[in-house]
C-alpha cells in the first residue's frame, strides 16, 4: 500500500502543475472566439457581411478586455461565447447574401430566357431550346474575384 502513496502524490503534483500552466494562458472559450473571428475575417465572402464582422470584432475586444480584467470569470467566458457566436453569424450572413445574389441572378436569367422564348414564339410555331450562347450571356457573379 505504501508503494501507491508516492504515485498518488506525484500525480497530484503533476495535476497542480498542469492547472498552474493552464491558468496563465487564455481560456478555451477565448481561443475559440479568436479562431472564429479570424475565420470570419479570412473568408472570401466577408465583404458581404461587413457590419456583422465588425460586431464580431467588437465582441472579441470586449471578451479580451474581460479576460484581462477578470480572468476565468463567468463574464469573461460569456463575452467569449458572444464573440464566437457573432463571428459565426457573420459567416452565415455572408453565405445567405451570396445565395440570395445567386438566386436573383438565376431568376433574372430565367426571365430573360422566357422573354426571348416569348419573342421567338411569335415568329415561329415552336421556340428553339436555349443553347450555349444563353449561358455566355448570363449575368456575371459579382462575388467572384
Please tell me about this protein's structure.
- The chain has helices at 4-24, 28-42, 50-69, 74-123, 132-136.
- With 145 residues, it is mainly alpha-helical.
- The longest helix has 50 residues, at 74-123.
- It is rod-shaped, with a radius of gyration of 28 Å.
How many extended strands?
0
Main beta sheet: none
Helix and strand run? HHHHH
By secondary-structure content and strand pairing, the structural class works out as mainly alpha
| C-alpha geometry | rod-shaped
Nearest-integer average pLDDT: 80
Low-confidence regions? 1-18
Strand content: under 5%
> Termini distance?
70 Å
Gyration radius, to the nearest Å?
A: 28 Å
The helix count comes to 5
**Helix content class:** over 70%
Would you summarize the structure shown here?
This protein has 145 residues and is mainly α. The protein is built from five helices and no strands.
Q: Which helices and strands, and how do they pair?
A:
Blueprint: H1 4-24, H2 28-42, H3 50-69, H4 74-123, H5 132-136
Amino acid at each position: 500500500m505504501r508503494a501507491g502513496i508516492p504515485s498518488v502524490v506525484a500525480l497530484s503534483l503533476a495535476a497542480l502543475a498542469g492547472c498552474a500552466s493552464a491558468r496563465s494562458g487564455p481560456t478555451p472559450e477565448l481561443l475559440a472566439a479568436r479562431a472564429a473571428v479570424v475565420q470570419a475575417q479570412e473568408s472570401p465572402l466577408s465583404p458581404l457581411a461587413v457590419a456583422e464582422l465588425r460586431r464580431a470584432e467588437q465582441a472579441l475586444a470586449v471578451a479580451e478586455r474581460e479576460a484581462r480584467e477578470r480572468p476565468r470569470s463567468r463574464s469573461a467566458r460569456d463575452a467569449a461565447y458572444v464573440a464566437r457566436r457573432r463571428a459565426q453569424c457573420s459567416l452565415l450572413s455572408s453565405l445567405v447574401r451570396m445565395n440570395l445574389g445567386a438566386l436573383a441572378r438565376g431568376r433574372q436569367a430565367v426571365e430573360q430566357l422566357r422573354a426571348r422564348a416569348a419573342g421567338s414564339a411569335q415568329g415561329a410555331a415552336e421556340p428553339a431550346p436555349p443553347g450555349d450562347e444563353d449561358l455566355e450571356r448570363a449575368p456575371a457573379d459579382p462575388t467572384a474575384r
